[in-house]
Amino acid sequence: MSEGKKTQFVTAGRNKKWTNGVVNPPVQRASTVVFNTVAEKKHATVNRTNKTLFYGRRGTTTHFALQEAMTELEGGAGCALFPCGAAAITNTILSFVSAGDHILMVDTCYEPTRDFCEIMLKKLGVETTYYDPLVGEGIRDLIQPNTKVLFTESPGSITMEVQDVPALAAIAHEHDIIVMLDNTWAAGVNFDPFAHGVDISIQAATKYIVGHSDVMLGTAVASEKYWDQLREQSYLMGQCVSPDDAYLALRGIRTLGVRLQQHGKSSLELAQWLAERPEVDHVRHPGLESCPGHEFFKRDFTGGNGLFSIVLKQSDPKATTALLDTVEHFSMGYSWGGFESLILANEPSSFNALRTLSNPNFEGTLLRIHVGLEDLDDLKADLEKGFAAYNAALA
Ligand SMILES: *Cc1c(COP(=O)(O)O)cnc(C)c1O
């Protein structure tokens, strides 16, 4: 965690204008904002894009507090809010592309991001080229005259490759290409997007920002250059969130620092412990050398979290099932970033559908693990039990 962040987690967005003098900003529910004079209505209309009450879809004081908090944490000129992370990704891309454009998408992107490119962008006449997360200078060869967006996600989904974002961004900017980052893994705070050349930093706030597995929410923080277009075009597409959800995200931010620190400490220790297990081929934890792109993690990130993957030596779905059915603290769930531990298995063949060119060609099963806030000894004992069942079931 970088210097000064812990204080920011406590203070961000707690402007007296939004809190009205109490600690937390109240939940302000509104569709209609009423004006008693023509002058009041005119003032609201002129200032509607700048945190002034105008109409519910433009946000209320609860939303303004969260938007302000996110720009304080990530930097940038403003934050657009979305009903989930997927909406943040798709609407941010849609705000900047037109028919005939081309985008560069990292091959290790979140699966629904790929599906959006394949189904929606294709339908709209926008072409996608997937690039290897570790492409480096090779990105130059993939840039076309109509390339509009370079989309990054670091570390990559499931296989955890850490990207050299500053190098890619520098090349993209030579061609006036907009650099977008899915910054969910770093929770927007352990990787400073704007210091590393990113133009728009997107998050599934559903994960660590909210942090308690009870809200769907997306955010996109943009630099000065792109903020107006992002704000207005996502507004056109009707993107807005409930004030209750915005409130819960603000509450999550207050403990984000201590949660991330604990998740990070436990996950590194568990990853090291797993690396020694005889069943494990290698560990893909950005904080360990065995993770592709670890050098970029060391250079660019200021902390870790609870999410990493391990690759087993063998692929034996029956044995994997025995492990998954035996562990009790690790439930299976399609999310992460909450206080609870989670586990998901990917057999090597599943990557044929998930990757275009960087198919990691594992021999063994990949297990993605989210380390929650439980006692580490309980988690280790749970996995020991799981591995015992795994070994007993091995063909
Ligand atoms: C979960 C996730 C998303 C999507 O967020 P939702 O809130 O579930 O729509 C996007 N990117 C990454 C990296 C995620 O983990």
From TrEMBL:
<dbReference type="GO" id="GO:0005737">
    <property type="term" value="C:cytoplasm"/>
</dbReference>
<keyword id="KW-0963">Cytoplasm</keyword>
<dbReference type="InterPro" id="IPR015424">
    <property type="entry name" value="PyrdxlP-dep_Trfase"/>
</dbReference>
<keyword id="KW-0663">Pyridoxal phosphate</keyword>
<comment type="pathway">
    <text>Amino-acid biosynthesis; L-methionine biosynthesis via de novo pathway; L-homocysteine from L-cystathionine: step 1/1.</text>
</comment>
<dbReference type="InterPro" id="IPR006233">
    <property type="entry name" value="Cys_b_lyase_bac"/>
</dbReference>
<dbReference type="GO" id="GO:0009086">
    <property type="term" value="P:methionine biosynthetic process"/>
</dbReference>
<protein>
    <recommendedName>
        <fullName>cysteine-S-conjugate beta-lyase</fullName>
        <ecNumber>4.4.1.13</ecNumber>
    </recommendedName>
</protein>
<dbReference type="GO" id="GO:0047804">
    <property type="term" value="F:cysteine-S-conjugate beta-lyase activity"/>
</dbReference>
<dbReference type="Pfam" id="PF01053">
    <property type="entry name" value="Cys_Met_Meta_PP"/>
</dbReference>
<dbReference type="InterPro" id="IPR015422">
    <property type="entry name" value="PyrdxlP-dep_Trfase_small"/>
</dbReference>
<dbReference type="InterPro" id="IPR015421">
    <property type="entry name" value="PyrdxlP-dep_Trfase_major"/>
</dbReference>
<dbReference type="InterPro" id="IPR000277">
    <property type="entry name" value="Cys/Met-Metab_PyrdxlP-dep_enz"/>
</dbReference>
<dbReference type="GO" id="GO:0030170">
    <property type="term" value="F:pyridoxal phosphate binding"/>
</dbReference>
<keyword id="KW-0486">Methionine biosynthesis</keyword>
<keyword id="KW-0456">Lyase</keyword>
<dbReference type="InterPro" id="IPR054542">
    <property type="entry name" value="Cys_met_metab_PP"/>
</dbReference>
<feature type="modified residue" description="N6-(pyridoxal phosphate)lysine">
    <location>
        <position position="207"/>
    </location>
</feature>
<comment type="similarity">
    <text>Belongs to the trans-sulfuration enzymes family.</text>
</comment>
<keyword id="KW-0028">Amino-acid biosynthesis</keyword>
<dbReference type="GO" id="GO:0019450">
    <property type="term" value="P:L-cysteine catabolic process to pyruvate"/>
</dbReference>
<dbReference type="GO" id="GO:0019346">
    <property type="term" value="P:transsulfuration"/>
</dbReference>
